[in-house]
Specification:
Radius of gyration: 36 Å
Largest sheet: 6 strands, antiparallel
Number of strands: 23
Distance between the termini: 26 Å
Number of helices: 23
Amino acid sequence: MENKDLLKWSKLLFLYVLIFFMLREWLLPVMELTNTGHYDLLMLFIVICLVTNIAHVHTGISVGIKGAYIIWFMLYIQKPQDGPFIQSITESMRALVTGNWIDMSDGFKTMLFLILLWMTIYLIHHWLTIRRSILFFFILTVLFLALIDTFTKYNADASIIRTMILGFLLTGLLFTERLMSENKMKQTIGNYLKLLVPLFLLIGVSAAFAYAMPKQKAATNLPEPIENLVKWTNANINTVGKIGYVENDDQLGGDFERDSTPVFQYTAKEPQYMRVESKSSYTGRGWKNAQNEILVSTFDYGEAIKTSIPGGKKKNELDMRVKMDKKYSFLVQPYGVKEILRSNEKNNQFYIEIDSGKIRATKGKDRKVVDLLSYEYVYTKPIYKQKELDASRMQMIAKDTGITPKEKKENLQVPATLPKRVRDLATDITKDEKSVYDKANAVVDYFKTSGYRYSNINVGYPTGDEDYVDRFLFDTKVGYCDNFSTSMVMMMRSIGVPTRWVKGFSPGDKTASTEVLKDGMSQYSVTNNNAHSWVEVYIPEVGWMPFEPTIGFEGFDEQVEEETTQNEAPTKKEEKKQEEQKKQEEQKKEQPKKEQEMKKEQQPKEQKATTTNTNNWLPIAFGIGVIVLAIVLFFTRHRWYVNLFIWYYNQKKPPIEQAYRVLLRRLARHNLLVREDGETLATFAKRVDQQLRTEDMSKLTNLMERRLYDPNADSARWDEFKECWKNLINETRG
């Protein structure tokens, strides 16, 4: 008896060890692709789930152990900025119900992931102990790894080989179990070795042969399937997203819904464009980060920040305080930022990416990026002299030493697929302007005077071989900031002016309390609606300068006119500039009126949307409840369905012939007990009783045979055979 128990536990332990390593193959790519940490703790949770299943721990105790571990895990990774634990859970639940999944805390996401692992392991336990088949999970694992290897950067070559070996071992072991059970073989070590040694040898030889075979690279490089899939999806499905800042700009376009969710607040003397980063590589569909190494410059609190657009004079320095409502792994920055005074963190450092200008906060020896909740800057608005701007010429770009050859090359990049008519249009727009500064303004003015329209709907994506810029400039003429800014970058580059695409946030609005704070400071609120993109043009002998090409946005005000003496009469050029300034001032005066009218039009819609969102949480919660209930019912179907089945027939009270036929079908379907050709009912009943260790089938069959072979016998009543029938039906639960 002891030897049998030892063999039983050894088999089960070996099976679960194989399952552990197969689950590990699921976990590794997930952690690498999502930058998830705490690998050891996640693996420990898998071990806990497997051990409680092997040891047949009572359900209540098992749930308590796993639940306690999940809560401890959540507390362990809880961040100070997440707030109190209960509040964090409540807010994450609200984000889950409303669909704002990005706002869920890391602890709550971890909890959902652990619960998913828990349910998966429970399902695997059912397959191992009841169904004695792991083929479905094996195939699913191979498909998962194949898709991950195909559509992501994760290399799953070794993972697939390991999974194939593990899967064949598991499948072979479970098949051996079924074979020995069906043929009533004694479960001894000798019998297992007779069946398993050939299996192990076959798997070992196959694996060695696969490794030893020569490998040859493909004759042609196939296109990236994920890129083609995205193109097909964008071309055929008109998806509507929500506005907001995202770091991936590989595919621009599509409609979006407005979203007034707060992102951050800042306190400053004047409203400011808040820069995040610039990008230089345009693909015809969107923007990508440079493929080369990211060069950074580190600095501490109070140290000068080396930005590509320096601030003005020291006497004009201003303070700015930023308070984040949403967590980002970067800092938002005003133009002319000089140093960071303080933040909510202590003993941390910063770095700025040389090419993009993105600033991140780091902490610890491993320089781990941290999310700051608040920070304070010193900045001065950049100053540009009109005389220098007017003197800028195209031929000066080649000789200008203020921009490196590498930087010049990156910001003059134009894809070979860009249609020639884009360059022709840019040349035509700027041909009458002498200075580079005026050429840039000519492109900005072109959008305002040539029938282009700002809209967040009916924008769509380029299809086929269409270029994103070409489609906007010549076909649709409808779009939002990404359309205008990307088009201006490509137009300026196509005529030989280094230009870069910039992302960040527009200035936002003053908070409800419009009173000016001390020292003339005001508070501004920035929401997802303020996520924005614009342009920076390199003016030779001047430097990088921001431009706002998007219709409806006021733009930048860093330019400072040269002072003229009283005796000097204004030149024609200056008169022209003065006239333009007057027009701009008039437009600025009219702009608030237009904005007020637009806000009045949008207010009912926004109020309606808010009311709808408030009233819609009940159906969403009800839908989630239905899904959870459906999952529970699915996993427990073998229990409740049989009870429902028995209740139905107990009410119906069928004749014995019908009940017997139903029983035969269920036995054949669930227990593989099929009546063989030529086998009598009595012989079949005896075989069933031996298999199920009961006498109910023989009793039921005697009643059935009496009805079949004795015409004078009364038909057995339901009360006479229902107990035997119910007992046998219950045996089909597995």
